[in-house]
Write a structure and sequence with these properties.
Blueprint (H helix, E strand, L loop, with lengths): L1 H28 L4 H10 L22 H11 L4 H13 L3 H13 L3 H13 L7 H13 L3 H9 L1
Helix pairs in contact: 2-3, 2-4, 3-4, 4-5, 5-6, 6-7, 7-8
């Protein structure tokens, strides 16, 4: 009888642990690195379609936050196209245009429509290197096809 009670308690304990694990699973799936959280806080674009709804974003990276944003976005960029785009925003805010163009290009290659718009804007104006309206138009069209409203506006303006 004692053995039967011990087995029953063990089974109940296993079930309880399983229920707790299943209940906790959704939160674990949404876990983000601290680097990405800091990158989001400092450099997220409010209009970025990749941005989670709970991340507010800022129209510009604050000058006092640029160095910190570059640090944390660079770390997070290895596993997040959103962080790559935000790293480009931080570089652009620091007037490091070749670096901004490079990471915007990487983020665009990974499918970031916001990065396509920023890279296209730099190419259309020539402020990120040689002026290239043909590539800018292609980037705006690709981003617009992905549903980016800013891209559609820029494409029409070009």
């Amino acid at each position: 009888m004692k053995r039967l009670h011990a087995l029953a308690f063990a089974a109940i304990g296993c079930i309880a642990v399983s229920v707790i694990a299943v209940a906790a699973a959704p939160t674990l799936a949404r876990a983000q690195s601290a680097d990405l959280v800091l990158c989001d806080r400092l450099a997220a674009d409010p209009a970025d379609p990749d941005k989670p709804a709970d991340v507010k974003g800022a129209p510009d990276v604050a000058p006092s936050d640029v160095a910190t944003a570059i640090k944390y976005c660079r770390i997070a960029a290895g596993s997040s196209r959103r962080a790559l785009y935000q790293l480009g925003r931080a570089y652009a805010a620091n007037r490091q245009m070749p670096e901004a163009v490079g990471v915007y290009r990487k983020a665009a290659d990974k499918g970031s429509s916001a990065a396509m718009v920023e890279l296209g804007t730099l190419l259309a104006s020539g402020s990120g290197g040689p002026k290239d309206e043909t590539e800018a138009r292609a980037l705006f069209a690709r981003a617009a096809q992905a549903g980016n409203a800013r891209a559609a506006v820029r494409l029409a303006a070009l």
